[in-house]
Amino acid sequence: MVDIGDDAPNFTASLAHDGIEPFDLAAHLGDGPVVLAFYPAAFSNTCTEEFCTFRDDLARFETVGATVFGVSTDLPHAQDVFRAKHDLPFGLIADPDHHAIEAYDVVDDSFKPRGVDVVARRAVFVIDDAGIVRYRWLAEHPGKEPDYDAVAEAVADAA
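^ Peroxiredoxin, sequence as received from the core. Prediction below:
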């Protein structure tokens, strides 16, 4: 389990942000804190509420130079449509091969009865410029949203 004080595991995936492009976490370190917000599924109610809240509160993160990314196991094109539909100004990372969710130990298999083997557990990690995890939050259940004030405070502390 990735914890506070650990080196953030690097991973590669696809990024939906004005099109689809390759993503490597290491390339985004060193320019301010990085927020990785893992979520189970694009277009679900709680995920939509969560990312619209991040969108509406984005200035709190940008003022300290932070970059927010959403991460789910959805395919890149689904991420791109979700992003466009909700006018999300930050990138969404598509992790259909589960590299990121396995690296951060946020695999959720509770959706199997609904026909989905594995999704991301709702979680938030804040990573500083040196690639150290400075904040970690894991949801007790998929419908629980993060404490946005705590995330913003962790981002400010990591800046």
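The radius of gyration is 14 Å.
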